[in-house]
TrEMBL record:
Cellular component annotations (GO), alphabetically ordered: cytoplasm
Alphabetical UniProt keywords: Lyase
GO biological process, one term: secondary metabolic process
Domain Amidohydrolase-related intervals: 23-370
Species, as recorded: Bradyrhizobium septentrionale
Organism ancestry: Bacteria, Pseudomonadati, Pseudomonadota, Alphaproteobacteria, Hyphomicrobiales
Full protein name: Amidohydrolase
Amino acid sequence: MSDVIDRPMLDQETTAATRLKIIDCDIHPSIHAHSDLNEFLPKRWQQHLKEYGSHLRTPYIGTTPYPRSSPLIARRDAWPPTGGVPGSDLEFMRKQHLDPFDVEFGILQVLDLFIFSQQNLEFGAAIQRAINDWQLAFWAHRDPRLKASILVGQDGSDLGLAEIERCARTGEYIQINVSPRANEPLGRRRYWPIYQRAQELDLPLGIHVGGYGGHAPTGGGWPSYYCEEHQSNAHTVASNLTSLVLEGVPERFPKLKIVFIEGGFGWIPATMWRMDQHFERFRSEVPHLKRKPSEYVKQHFWFTTQPIDEPDEARHLRQLIEWVGIDRLLFSSDYPHWDYDDARYAFKTPLTEAERRKIFNANARAVYKF
């Protein structure tokens, strides 16, 4: 990972990258200013945003869970020369990321305004609707490589379902995004109507780390340090994977494809092994499960690669990838964030050409039907 690209791409590296076009499953666009949303936001909610701002499910007052030393959690070299915040300038994004790495498709993941964590569900739904429209107008329609997601707040499931229907009618969105930090674990029945509709529409369910659930992000309570918060993303994703599997979501919705984004993948083997062990001992508690939990994981779930766990010995990373499964991994850069993964150096272990093709392109092509 890197918070700055320390040298320009060499000619031979550009050639190597071009041989294998990349599908990047985690690119963060940002609004330049709140006024970008005005044409998509009713006057009532424009005024609400101006007068009240966000009312979030968070104990942080006047700050975020990210350090001031990495403003907006961005790479130091990602601030556009034309002004604005990292990720807000399409031309700069093209020059710095899309063109040199030969990105064939990039999936947009919007984090602005913590849209999944708004206490006022109607305001949250209005912001989600505005940002969903903004994604098309400011990004996808201006560069066909960039693909938008339908952002919905699952705690207002009726509002979320209405937004899914509205966006799905356009045929221009490639997945439905929900937050891993909701009011309850994601396997709960209250969220099933969203999963039902995602399956019917054949749209993958994307779950990107971050946001505020109102609960401590670790089982031990609130962390002291920013690096603890970052570490907790893996715990959050693991607990939601466990909830989805053991509550029976993949059994209930067998055609639903679920993609965990920006949670890494180093924790997956141990989570599967433990779920399988407990399933053998407590099978009578979960009779709705017809197979071992690991079998559901390997058939219904995918994981983006960033942030990659980096053991000292390359063979350990190789073993980890084999345990998770080459077919389960989708490359992601997390551009323009500070812990960005450069496609040239992301995997510090040898991969065959066929394996590289799967992780950097073919797996995402199959999941998202590009």
